[in-house]
Backbone:
């Protein structure tokens, strides 16, 4: 344990006076609770009943590995796995939001309220792209306590927040901290990569719990931590409430979040690009291509325009654009602020759903060839949205790869198959034709880079 001595220092008339135990600067201690100047207790009493504990049970099949198996002895068995997490009641009828990873694949979900009552729960919907899920408990018409949501764009770095959840299986626990950063990227956690960062202690079991502001409203769902030990080191990430609100509104109707399509391809503004465009700082996205007939073309956007804001919210990179689009409804009309030729301009853009054009024509490649085991499809804006891609271009994309397959050695979901044997591949049908003729090399596009794999 690290013990840290704190020395109280007061500046008076340009000099420095040290407070000591003589009582020269002593202040009377409070004699009862009413004299305490600051306490989170009233807030905690109000919001904590809406935070629940979630227990899940999953039955997994396991393969027994016996050194000397006997004839007729079963080689497979079942193992029951238990996990725990947290959730937040967001509707009085028992609708709960949590992380998708909390109940993923669960056979049974059990919810324990703050007053220790227990209920069975059913999954309403889940969206693994944003690691959010909705579950519901049936209280027979009872009205449950719930949290209202606050616009997560209204919070600022330095705001005081409380994190409420059930870490390590303990009963409900409250920790306090501040907003450490906004629009923080935490790669690999979920598709939006646009988190609220807080130093309020968050530990395993807190997933799905509430991050609340001092007005008692939900501003985020605690999702992940940065840690090299598995415990809290003061870097926690919460999914903003604006995304939570979308999953609630769409999930209640049985739908999923559909990100509007802008009909443009973009590139992040680097320091070199900023210098070339005479921009004050490297922020925003440069329009590389405008697709005819798309929302961007109808709004009047052109190549080399720099998008710096969407609906008055700054756009600094691809992650911020994905987040902003996910919070907007398809068919909404929003202002887009750009820089063109050194001047700021605003265009009104009517958002559209991503079209599935061309048809995806999905296929799993098989046979004795290097791409065996790869699932592929024609890339369209709709497929790009499902895979969490910002950019779209015609071609063939890898959608999934079978575990242990040969293709898994050099391709992964999201890769573009650009050519086979030096011949361009434009669609799945063409890819199959190229493979049937034999495969000597495959060119793959990944994150803006192209690599060619040679086979003998």
Residues:
């Amino acid at each position: 344990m690290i013990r840290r001595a704190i020395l109280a220092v007061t500046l008076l008339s340009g000099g420095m006076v040290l407070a000591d135990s003589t009582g020269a600067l002593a202040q009377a201690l409070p004699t009862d609770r009413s004299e305490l100047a600051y306490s989170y207790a009233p807030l905690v009493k109000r919001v904590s009943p809406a935070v629940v504990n979630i227990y899940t049970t999953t039955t997994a099949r396991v393969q027994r590995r016996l050194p000397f198996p006997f004839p007729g002895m079963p080689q497979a068995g079942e193992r029951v796995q238990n996990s725990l997490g947290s959730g937040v009641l967001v509707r009085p009828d028992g609708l709960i939001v949590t992380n998708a990873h909390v109940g993923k694949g669960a056979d049974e979900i059990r919810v324990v309220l703050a007053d220790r009552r227990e209920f069975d729960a059913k999954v309403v919907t889940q969206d693994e792209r944003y690691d959010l899920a909705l579950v519901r408990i049936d209280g027979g018409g009872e009205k449950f306590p719930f949290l209202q949501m606050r616009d997560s764009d209204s919070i600022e770095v330095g705001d005081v927040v409380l994190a409420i959840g059930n870490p390590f299986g303990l009963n409900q626990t409250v920790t306090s901290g501040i907003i450490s950063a906004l629009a923080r990227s935490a790669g690999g956690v979920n598709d939006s990569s646009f988190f609220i960062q807080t130093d309020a202690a968050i530990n395993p079991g807190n997933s799905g719990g509430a991050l609340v502001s001092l007005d008692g409203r939900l501003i985020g769902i605690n999702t992940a931590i940065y840690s090299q030990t598995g415990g809290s080191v003061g870097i926690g990430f919460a999914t903003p409430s604006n995304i939570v609100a979308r999953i609630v509104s769409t999930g209640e109707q049985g739908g999923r979040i559909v990100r509007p399509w802008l009909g443009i391809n973009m590139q992040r503004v680097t320091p070199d690009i900023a210098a070339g465009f005479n921009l004050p700082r490297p922020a925003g996205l440069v329009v590389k291509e405008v697709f005819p007939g798309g929302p961007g073309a109808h709004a009047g956007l052109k190549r080399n325009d720099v998008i710096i804001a969407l609906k008055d919210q700054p756009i600094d990179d691809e992650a911020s654009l994905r987040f902003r689009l996910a919070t907007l409804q398809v068919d909404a009309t929003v202002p887009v602020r750009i820089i063109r030729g050194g001047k700021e301009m605003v265009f009104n853009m009517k958002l559209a759903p991503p079209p599935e054009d061309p048809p995806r024509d999905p296929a799993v490649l098989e046979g004795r060839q290097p791409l065996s085991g790869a699932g592929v499809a024609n890339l369209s804006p709709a497929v790009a949205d499902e895979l969490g891609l910002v950019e779209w271009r015609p071609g063939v994309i890898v959608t999934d790869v079978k575990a242990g397959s040969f293709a898994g050695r050099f391709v992964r979901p999201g890769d573009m198959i650009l050519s086979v044997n030096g011949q361009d591949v434009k669609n799945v049908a063409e890819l199959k034709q190229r493979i049937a003729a034999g495969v000597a090399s495959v060119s793959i596009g990944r994150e803006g880079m192209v690599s060619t794999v040679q086979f003998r």
Remarks:
- The longest helix spans residues 241-251.
- The mean pLDDT is 83.
